[in-house]
Amino acid sequence: MLPESPPAGTTVVPNRIGIEQVVEGDVCLRVTDPGTDDTVGWVPYHGEAIAREAVDAAAAALPAWRARPPGERADCLRRFAASMLAQQRVLARQLTREQGKPLTEAMGEIAYAASFLEWSAEEGRRLAGEWYHAHHSDKRILVLRQPLGVVAAITPWNFPAAMVTRKLGPALAVGCTVVLKPAEQAPLTALALAELALQAGIPPGVFNVVTGDADAIGRAWLGDARVRKLSFTGSTEVGRLLVARAATQLTRLSLELGGHAPLLVFEDADLDAAVRGAIAAKFRNAGQTCICPNRAYVHAAVADAFVARVRDQVAGMFLGHGLDDGVQVGPLIDDDAVAKVRAHLDDARDRGATVQCGGNIVQPRFNLTHRFCEPTVLTGLDPAMAIAREETFGPVLAVQTFEDDDHAIALANDTPWGLAAYAYTRELSRALRVAEALEFGIVGLNDTAVSNAQAPFGGLKHSGWGREGGKWGVEDYVDVKYVSIG
Ligand code: ADP
Q1: For this structure, is 373 an active site residue?
Q2: Ligand 1 center to residue 451 CA distance, Å?
Q3: 3-class state of residue 336 by DSSP
Q4: So what's the pLDDT on residue 14?
Q5: Are 117 and 169 spatial neighbours (Cβ–Cβ below 8 Å)?
Q6: What average pLDDT does the chain have?
Q7: What are the tens digits of pLDDT across the range 317-339?
Q8: Model confidence over 347-395: pLDDT tens digits?
Q9: The whole model's pTM is what?
Q10: What angle do CA 198, 113, 145 make, to 5 degrees?
Q11: Which residue, 149, 245, 252, 373, is most buried by CB atoms nearer than 10 A?
């Protein structure tokens, strides 16, 4: 996205840095509705200078925030969560406008996002140290857990609220302060959250949001010794770049990168549950989630029945603008996303896949954009196809049949990514064997709704480092200090 000058008289949603609302400079980013191309708002286009000022603010706020009793920080986070829920519809409408997902999903995301603040508030109160006897009777070992300090977060556009609070909640709960750069496609939600945080009593400087030049902001933060960690959710490509840049200050990194989830349906599966699970996970957010199944491997004995049931339901899904009543699938985020999904569809067709339903990128009605991909089911998936090799990030489910378990597991694991995988079977021994064999950070057994604030979310291999959520997410924001006592 290129910066541009907003028309005279435009209101620019300011960045939040400390108490200051920064709107300097005349270049801005236009935030548009992906379903209509209408302008939803303008945000500043900042670079290194403001990124460093944000770190100044976070560093200045750190000593007092770190010193507060955990219960006081928890109170602030709980008030913040409550105000998100009180504003749920307003936030959700804005989220749908900038990101495109159906309003019901946006409502769900706001509640899900608030749950990270609530969970972190509780977990932050329980942060404890340890006390051990040592190898001499006159020595003791004390282990302290202390907040890392100023932490940076860079978030993606597909969950503009939840990806913010999943990082922010644990960081603030343990006493860190945060500088955050939301994705340029959907930054308004993060800015709205910064406002709510301030109103909830989270002091100025504790949570700062900067919008603008991603590369310059990232460089500024990874070049700054005061930034002790960067938590990133986004593409593997950018993740790699950040790993290289983090070498300068040895900045600690959490990386939640791409996925390419397989869904395995064995011949003994509860097919109705498998169909429900596949559709819920695949078509949510128009397939733009890093844990949505991209490829289904279905046992040959049940493949026809599975495909027929999926097709019947998917063919009836309502494609349209996220704010319209009853819409189940909204637009893709931008033209690059459309190009990728189109390329995967064309490649699959050229290589012999059969389109069971959908298959086109359309304009559902005259005043909408051409960014709507029909919910699509393909059969005849082949490992050579692009859709079998990489994340499509669109509402397309591709199905391949298999005959034996080991083959299915081998197909599932034959990828550099390792975020989420799903398996449907009723047989306990098979379920456990498959769960152990799948090389993924998250395995859904007879379940595709795997995201929640209590669980450790994260990947293996090219899907990243670290875990977010639960006690693991909180541990990622503390330093362990060993005090040897004589
Ligand atoms: P996607 O392909 O899903 O948009 P990206 O990895 O490009 O994923 O974007 C995820 C986040 O990373 C966004 O906030 C984006 O602005 C940011 N980003 C993109 N390029 C860089 C970069 N060079 N340095 C730091 N952040 C970046």
Answers
A1: no
A2: 22
A3: helix
A4: 81
A5: yes
A6: 96
A7: 999 999 999 999 999 999 999 99
A8: 999 999 999 999 999 999 999 999 999 999 999 999 999 999 999 999 9
A9: 0.97
A10: 75
A11: 373
